[in-house]
Design a protein that fits this description.
The protein has 376 residues and is of the alpha/beta class. It has 14 helices and 13 strands. The strands form 4 sheets. Strands 2-8-7-6-5-3-4 form a 7-stranded mixed sheet, sandwiched between helices. This is Aminotransferase class I/classII large domain-containing protein.
Length: 376
């Protein structure tokens, strides 16, 4: 399997760079802050928790609360996981086998293409950056083969922040249904769209062969809990993924499940805080990029807390990102990390994150770097 280049880059810089300006999660909470949102009963359950093994499918109360975030799913349609990455890996290993074919949108989180590529043939369908990073449904249709089993999407999208238009989403569901394809949908940024009116339905709610991946890490800002889940109304498929989980994490952390339960019960409060933080931060990015129109093309993303601006200055975008972190401690993700094995696409863009509370410090350091050193 190809080296996980994005995580390898983070291993070097995420905790050593002074200004983390490409974080893909929202501002987190300390445990006392989270416990302050809990009912007396849930707070006591956490404080008196027995630290034994937990159920492989997940804490029943947590599965019930997760199901409450869907319109048509029950607790029995939920499988809890050790983060979203375990969900990507286990689902692909179960759903695909040699001789199958999968379709994956790009750019994307690297594991979305490299894990299926280890198993079977994969076709990449590029999002159209000239059409607000939309997905051409005709291109997906053209990629379908007799042995195609699965389509993998991600909206709100990482790294572009795009949200698929509802009519195209519905057309994709119809296409998958017509061909009997599984639709694996990474929905980890759902809930922090710029406009709730563009929020898409969750695939597991509207498609009988849909799998919705979500996690406490992104929209909820609690990556340290390492709690994710897959929702799927095909319980036979969900059971197969649960059996594969036996070879991975086996079960989730008991304290993490209890804290995730508390957070999900307070989800309206948490998401309201996070949307307000994003609204303020995106205005700060608007102002920053307006200072340097010759260096950057900036477009507000539709959802999530990451965006994919274009660099127009001297040198390559990779060189720009490398020099910025090495000289001034400002971490962005360079385009080489979004190289795809599926398509000969080369981006002149970088990923910037704006879900954290300390964005002013990072922007000031970035500005000072440009004013002092030039862009590179």
């Amino acid at each position: 399997m190809r080296k996980f280049e994005l995580e390898d880059h983070f291993a070097k810089w995420e905790f050593s760079a002074k200004y983390h300006m490409t974080a893909s999660d929202m501002q987190s909470f300390a445990i006392p802050e989270l416990l302050a949102m809990a009912s007396d009963e849930d707070r006591a359950a956490f404080k008196n928790l027995y630290l034994g093994y937990t159920e492989t499918f997940g804490l029943p109360a947590l599965r019930t609360e997760i199901a409450n975030t869907y319109d048509n799913c029950q607790a029995e349609d939920i499988l809890c996981l050790a983060g979203a990455e375990e969900g990507v890996y286990a689902a692909m290993r179960v759903m695909l086998e040699k001789g199958d074919h999968a379709i994956v949108v790009v750019p994307n989180y690297q594991a979305a293409e490299t894990v299926p590529l280890e198993i079977c043939d994969v076709t990449g369908v590029a999002l159209d950056e000239d059409d607000n990073w939309s997905l051409d449904i005709d291109a997906v249709r053209a990629a379908i083969r007799p042995n195609t089993k699965l389509v993998s999407i991600n909206f709100p999208q990482n790294p572009t922040g795009a949200v698929l238009a509802r009519d195209r989403f519905d057309a994709l569901i119809d296409l998958c249904r017509d061909h009997g394809l599984w639709l694996f949908s990474d929905e980890v940024y759902r809930g922090v769209e710029r406009d709730p009116a563009i929020r898409l339905p969750q695939v597991a709610d509207v498609y009988e062969k849909g799998l919705s991946l979500n996690v406490m890490s992104k929209a909820y800002g609690l990556p340290g809990l390492r709690v994710g889940w897959i929702a799927c109304r095909d319980r036979g498929m969900l059971k197969e993924i649960e059996r594969y989980k036996h070879y991975l994490s086996i079960c989730n952390s008991a304290p993490s499940e209890r804290l995730a339960l508390i957070a999900l019960k307070a989800r309206d409060r948490i998401l309201e805080r996070n949307c307000a933080l994003l609204a303020g931060n995106v205005e700060k990015l608007d102002a920053f990029f307006a200072e340097f129109p010759d260096l950057f093309d900036w477009q507000r993303p539709d959802g999530g807390c990451v965006a994919f601006p274009r660099y127009k200055g001297p040198g390559s975008t990779d060189e720009f990102c490398d020099r910025l972190v090495e000289k001034s401690g400002v971490l962005l993700l360079p385009p080489r990390l979004y190289h795809s094995d599926l398509l000969p696409v080369k981006y002149d863009r970088f990923r910037v994150g704006f879900g954290r509370a300390n964005i002013d410090e990072g922007l000031a350091a970035w500005r000072a770097h440009i004013m002092t050193n030039g862009p590179v």
